[in-house]
Structures are given as structure tokens and as C-alpha cells.
Design goal:
The complex is a heterodimer of chains A (about 325) and B (about 375). Chain A is about 40% helix and about 15% strand. Chain A has about 325 residues and is of the alpha/beta class. Chain A folds into two domains: about 180 residues, 3-Layer(aba) Sandwich (Rossmann fold), CATH 3.40.50.970; about 130 residues, Rossmann fold (3-Layer(aba) Sandwich), CATH 3.40.50. The longest helix of chain B is centred in the first third of the chain and has 26 residues. A five-stranded parallel beta sheet of chain B has the order 1-2-3-7-6, with helices on both faces. Chain B has a two-stranded antiparallel sheet with strand order 4-5. Chains A and B meet through helix 3 and helix 4 of A and helix 8, helix 9 and helix 15 of B.
């Protein structure tokens, strides 16, 4: 099977969907001539031309709102945010317009738009550039949110997102762009709302997604080798819709849960998960649900300290051992 | 009224065309008698609908805000009467006039105000959020200026698909100070999108006059983006049409955006909740009513043209009142949405379970 980088997998998904559907348009800052700030869209301009691959001015509220409006008339814009952090200047367009217009029109309208780009810390770019808004986005009914962690999932989820008739927020991670993984030659889709067991285990369930999931896998290997702990890692992949069945099945198997998220804790995805797990599988739990989040402060610049602020394998190992002891 | 950077607003307002010539503009002189009466009737229907909705509001049948369009009818009717098959409309929360002007029936509109399941948005949108995509009417938007990028996107879609249409994107005089409006202006001009931005300048944003909220002339800001722009009066329906047709044609034929400021006036408070006694003189409202009422102005024109006679005026008015009353009866008799309806129309996928491809939970209680 071919091995691709995460960014190449995203690019393949874009290219395939651009080829399949003439209404798909890629818009964003530096996506065309510059090949994308993170080179995700490299080569697409040459292949698809300037009508399909469109450089925008630095005008997130303008071009995202424009994309939402165009989607109401059947265009399927895939809009790149150079960083998801910049969504705040387009908040109204995403979370009032895209999220609500179907509802307020009594179901007469739908917005098949995808907004994609990186949403992560770990690159020492400070608080303004390190937001992880999946919880904020998922708080809005009408919006779907996915966070792929591997090249395989990145490609399959993006293709599904582009075909989806609801607005899908697709959160990538700059730290994963160079990660490699197997991606089949033949076409495939990864449906939204399907979690994936990335590692089987029997002592503890780690529920995670995005880069925190990748780190959880690394931690699980150490826990196996050095602590003789068998950890199951559930990769949510999709935050909304949310595959609770897979999470609950794993809880019934291990009876212990650690949620690991690259999120600030207050009202984070982990808070919602913990509530749902205790509510629906209380009798299955042998211990309180444990949670590891980003240390609750704006994202620090200082490179070695930022690493400690975020989830990392060492912090996950510590949290897992504590969860087993409680 | 093309770009004239040195012109003062007054010069622009009383521009090139004298009053009489508006009726003679081809777009108006070509109207049949019936078409003229139809336009007059639309304005009367808007007026009577809103007056009836005000009574329902006062009787506590309607919740939330009610922003009345009374006094501005010639703007929506004039503009929307120029729509062809591929022309589209989007506006802000003062949206009843545009909804009726594009042809929506009164029953679903009144029912929407009453929060009933038979409303145009099934009781989910309310006064500020009327929609009818089947009539190219895309709302009804509650955030000041928020609809302006959407209208630009509708225009983008028209151009992308190679359709010869334009999107009229309405906003108030207060909206022009929103950043999103300027972002939309820039994109429309940069990419030659077929959008006509229509500023309905009624002189006030809530209780703040134009002078207290906007530096410079409103439409002239288009100049900075090298967009065509113009200013006209919105009290005379003929004048609205005579001006708008040029900008619409330019959008359709040449894919050129423009900004048109239409001077109008609202007779009622900002919303029904506004006591309207703090920021403008009663005499000002009276003066407008007396001399510039769009329905009266057009009625006088049509009487002079002998298109209408007094008996017809009476009849049209009586019919509009009766229709508005019937719409209130319809709304009253209609059921409210059920609590189960609350979670419908949120996701396309949830509403189309047979075509759902995703798994997992979409709702969390
Ligand atoms: C972003 C935003 N800020 C404030 C408001 C509250 N608000 C509603 S209407 C309005 C005045 C807008 O005036 P204008 O654009 O002139 O439109 P008009 O009411 O005159 O039709 C204000 C401040 C809002 N709805 N949205
Ligand atoms: Mg105003």
C-alpha cells in the first residue's frame, strides 16, 4: 500500500473531490500560487486552474461568509483557514450563518461547506495561533466537527466532509502534516461519526483524538512495556456527530477511562465525554473518569514549557498510572 | 449617477434626473397599467400586513422583536420588481417588505410572526428570519451586516455557474460600519461579482442618526473599492426602479458590483419596543408622512396618469386589509410546532435519514 504524508493525504482527497464534482472549489489565503502556507494544496492550481483553486485576500469573515452564501446555491466550497485560530474573526459567519440558516429557514436551506486548517499547539507560535476550537464549534447544533489523526483518516474523512450536505469543520494539525501512513490506492471514505479503536487493550480505555491520540498510542506502548498495562486507545475522529457506542463498548471492556485531549479543560470535549460515560455506563466504572487536558492558561510561547503545557506521552503515562491506582 | 468623487451628497441626491423623468424612464414607461397597479397593490399589502402585525403584537400574539418597514415600501417593491429568474435577494431583520415584494403569501408570514408551524420558517425563525429560497429570497438576517458576505456568496455562485443574474444585498445605514460589509465590498470588487449592495438609508440605526454613526458619505465608500455607486430617493417607486435597473443590468451583463444608497424613512420606532421619543422630532416623522409617503406618492402619480381612480384605490385598500385580517386568522388557527420539532431542521442529514452516511450522535439530549 502507498505510504503518504498526512498533508499529501489531504491533498489527494481534495484532488479527487475536485475531479469528481465540478461544484467543489478550494478557497483560502495562499492556497493557489503559494501552494498553501503548509503546502497542503501544492500543485492543485496547476491541475485545476484558478476558477477552482482561489487565492483570497486576508479577509476571513468575507470569504467564509461568501463561501456560506455560495453553498446555499449549491457550490461546495472547501475553505482553508491558514490557522483555525483565525476563525474568531469569522465567528459570526460560521456560527450564526452556516450553523443557523437551515434552522431559521425551517429546513429550506442547507450549507455544504467545509472549513479546514490546522488547530493545534506545539509549534511555539503563542496564544493567538494555538487555539483548539473543536469544543466551541461542536457546541453549535447545525455544525459538524472532525479531527483526523492519521493520513488514512485524514483522506477518508475529508472526502466524506466534502460530500456532506451540512457544514463540516475539519481540524488538522501542523505537527502531523509530515506524519506518514498507509493510504490505499483505491477510493475509500471514512464516515463521520465513527470512532476507531487504534489499539486494543483490556486494562484502561484512553479516549482521544487528533495529535493527543497519536501521543496516547506512544504512551500506551510504554505502559505495556514498562508497566505491564494493557491500554485500549479509542480515536474519536469525529467530535460531532459523536460515536458513543464505540466509547461505551470499550468502557464495558476495561472499566477504566482516561480522556486525553489537546483542549483547555473548561467545557472541553473531555467534559462532555466524561458526563456521557458516567451517565450511560456508571455501573461499568471501577474508578472515577480521569481526564488529561492542556494546562489551563493561554498557550505559552516558551518552547520547552509549551511541550509540558500540552498533553505529551510522559504526562499521559503519569495520568494513566494514576487512573489505574484510583 | 456614476462615480463623482467631488459631488456633495445633495448634488447626488437631486441628480441628473428630474422627478418627471423617472416615470418616463424606459423601465417604467414600459409597464402596463396592470403592472403599475400590481406594484401599488404590493406596497399597500405590505403596509396593511404590518399594521395588522402591530396590532397582533400589541395583543401579545407575537414575541420578540417586530421591526416595521412602514415608510420604506417603495424600496423593496421597486427593487424586487426588477428581478428576473436568476436574480436573488438577501436582507437584514427588517425583512417583511422584501418577503412580500418577492411574492411570498401573507399567511405563512403572519403565521411565522405568531410562531406557528405553518409559518414560512415553521415558526423557527420569527420576524427577523423570513426565508423563501424558491423565490430566490435568502432571508431575513438578525446580525447587522452579517448577511452581506452571504449575498456576495450568492453572487459568486451565480458567476461560478455562468448564470446572468444579480444578487441584491440589502443593508441599513447602520450596517455600513461593520467590518464584514467592507470585506464583502472588497471581494465583490476584486472578483467582479454580480452583486448590488443596497443601503436602505432611513437616517437612523436604532436611535443613532447617520450623522452620529458614520463618517463621510455612505455609498461613496464604494469609490475606495473602485465600485460604481449612486444615491437616489426611495420615496418614489419610479425613481427606485429607474436607478436600480442600471446597476442590476451592469451586474448581470458585465458582472460588475455596485453600491446604491436609497434614501428612505421609517415612520415607526426601530422596533415596536422603541418608544421613539428620544432621538428624533415628531415633526420630522410627520413631515415625511405628509410629503413623502411612498404609497401616497405613487398613488398620486397613478391617479394623475389615470391608471388608478379613487374607487380602485379604495378597493385595493379594502382587499389588502381583508387579506391581512385573514392572515391573522390563519395564524391564530394554526398549531404551534411541537417540542419534537425543535430538533428538526438542524442537520440536513438528520432530516434525511434515508440518505445519512455518518454514524454517531448528532444531538446530545
Ligand atoms: C452585530 C449587531 N450589533 C447590534 C445589533 C442590534 N441592532 C439591531 S438593529 C440595529 C440598528 C441597525 O440600523 P440600520 O442598519 O440602519 O438598519 P435599520 O434598523 O434602520 O433598518 C442594532 C444596533 C445587531 N442586531 N447586530
Ligand atoms: Mg437605518
Amino acid at each position: 500500500m502507498p505510504v503518504l504524508q498526512y498533508r499529501e493525504a489531504i491533498r489527494q482527497a481534495l484532488a479527487e473531490e475536485l475531479t469528481r464534482d465540478p461544484n467543489v472549489v478550494v478557497l483560502g489565503e495562499e492556497v493557489a500560487q503559494f501552494h498553501g502556507a503548509y503546502k497542503v494544496t501544492e500543485g492543485l492550481l496547476a491541475k485545476f486552474g484558478p476558477k477552482r483553486i482561489v487565492d483570497t485576500p486576508i479577509s476571513e469573515a468575507g470569504f467564509i461568509g461568501m463561501g456560506v452564501g455560495a453553498s446555499m446555491l449549491g457550490i461546495r466550497p472547501v475553505i482553508e483557514l491558514m490557522f483555525w485560530s483565525f476563525y474568531s474573526v469569522a465567528f459570526d459567519q460560521i456560527l450564526n450563518n452556516a450553523a443557523n440558516v437551515r434552522y431559521m429557514s425551517g429546513g429550506q436551506i442547507h450549507c455544504p461547506i467545509v472549513i479546514r486548517g490546522p488547530a493545534n499547539g506545539g509549534t511555539n507560535v503563542g496564544a493567538t495561533h494555538s487555539h483548539t476550537p473543536e469544543n466551541v464549534l461542536a457546541n453549535h447544533p447545525g455544525i459538524k466537527v472532525v479531527v483526523p489523526a492519521t493520513p488514512y483518516d485524514a483522506k477518508g474523512l475529508l472526502k466524506s466532509a466534502i460530500r456532506d450536505n451540512d457544514p463540516v469543520m475539519y481540524l488538522e494539525n501542523t505537527m502531523l502534516y509530515g506524519d506518514k501512513g498507509e493510504v490505499p490506492e483505491e477510493e475509500y471514505l471514512v464516515p463521520l461519526g465513527k470512532a476507531d479503536i487504534k489499539r486494543e487493550g483490556k486494562d484502561l480505555t484512553i479516549v482521544s483524538y487528533g495529535r493527543a491520540m497519536v501521543q496516547s498510542l506512544a504512551a500506551a506502548n510504554v505502559l505495556q512495556q514498562e508497566h505491564n498495562l494493557s491500554v485500549e486507545v479509542v480515536d474519536l475522529r469525529s467530535i460531532r456527530p459523536l460515536d458513543m457506542d464505540t466509547v461505551l463498548a470499550s468502557v464495558r471492556k476495561t472499566h477504566r477511562v482516561l480522556v486525553v485531549e489537546e483542549q483547555k479543560p473548561f467545557c472541553g470535549v473531555g467534559a462532555q465525554l466524561a458526563y456521557m460515560i458516567q451517565s450511560e455506563a456508571f455501573d461499568e466504572l471501577d474508578a472515577p473518569i480521569a481526564r488529561l487536558s492542556t494546562v489551563d492558561a493561554p498557550s505559552i510561547y516558551s518552547p520547552p514549557v509549551e511541550e509540558e503545557q500540552l498533553p505529551n506521552p510522559q504526562r499521559i503515562i503519569k495520568a494513566a498510572i494514576a487512573a489505574m491506582a484510583s | 449617477m456614476s462615480k463623482k468623487s467631488t459631488a456633495t451628497p445633495d448634488e447626488l441626491g437631486s441628480s441628473l434626473h428630474g422627478k418627471a423623468s423617472h416615470a418616463e424612464a424606459a423601465v417604467n414607461s414600459s409597464l402596463s397599467k396592470d403592472q403599475k397597479i400590481g406594484l401599488y397593490r404590493l406596497m399597500v399589502r405590505i403596509r396593511r400586513f404590518e399594521e395588522r402585525s402591530l396590532r397582533a403584537y400589541q395583543a401579545k400574539k407575537i414575541g420578540g422583536f417586530l421591526h416595521l418597514y412602514i415608510g420604506q415600501e417603495a424600496v423593496a417593491v421597486g427593487c424586487c420588481s426588477l428581478m428576473g429568474k436568476d436574480d436573488h435577494v438577501i436582507t437584514a431583520y427588517r425583512d417583511h417588505g422584501h418577503a412580500i415584494a418577492v411574492g411570498m403569501e401573507l399567511n405563512p408570514l403572519m403565521a411565522e410572526l405568531y410562531g406557528k408551524a405553518t409559518g414560512c420558517s415553521k415558526g423557527k425563525g420569527g420576524s427577523m428570519h423570513f426565508f423563501d429560497p424558491s423565490r430566490n429570497y435568502w432571508g431575513g438576517h438578525g446580525i447587522v451586516g452579517g448577511q452581506v458576505p452571504l449575498g456576495t456568496g450568492l453572487a459568486y455562485a451565480l458567476k461560478y455557474k455562468g448564470l446572468k443574474g444579480a444578487c441584491m444585498t440589502f443593508m441599513g445605514d447602520g450596517a455600513v460600519n461593520q467590518g464584514a460589509v467592507h470585506e464583502a465590498y472588497n471581494l465583490a470588487a476584486l472578483w467582479d461579482l454580480p452583486v448590488v449592495f443596497v443601503i436602505e438609508n432611513n437616517g437612523y440605526s436604532m436611535g443613532t442618526s447617520q450623522a452620529r454613526s458614520s463618517a463621510g458619505d455612505l455609498a461613496r465608500r464604494a469609490d475606495a473599492y473602485h465600485m460604481d455607486w449612486g444615491v437616489c430617493d426611495g420615496h418614489d417607486l419610479y425613481e427606485v426602479r429607474a436607478n436600480m435597473v442600471r446597476y442590476l443590468d451592469r451586474a448581470r451583463e458585465k458582472c460588475k458590483p455596485s453600491v446604491v444608497e436609497i434614501r428612505t424613512y421609517r415612520y415607526r420606532g426601530h422596533s415596536v419596543a422603541d418608544p421613539d421619543n428620544t432621538y428624533r422630532a415628531k415633526g420630522e416623522v410627520e413631515e415625511y408622512r405628509r410629503t413623502k409617503d411612498p404609497i401616497q406618492v405613487f398613488q398620486d402619480l397613478l391617479l394623475a396618469e389615470k391608471v388608478l381612480d379613487a374607487a380602485q384605490v379604495e378597493k385595493i385598500d379594502a382587499e389588502a386589509r381583508a387579506e391581512a385580517d385573514l392572515s391573522a386568522e390563519f395564524a391564530e388557527a394554526s398549531p404551534y410546532p411541537s417540542i419534537d420539532d425543535v430538533q428538526k431542521d438542524v442537520y440536513w442529514e438528520a432530516d434525511n435519514p434515508g440518505e445519512r452516511t455518518s454514524g454517531g450522535r448528532l444531538f446530545f439530549n
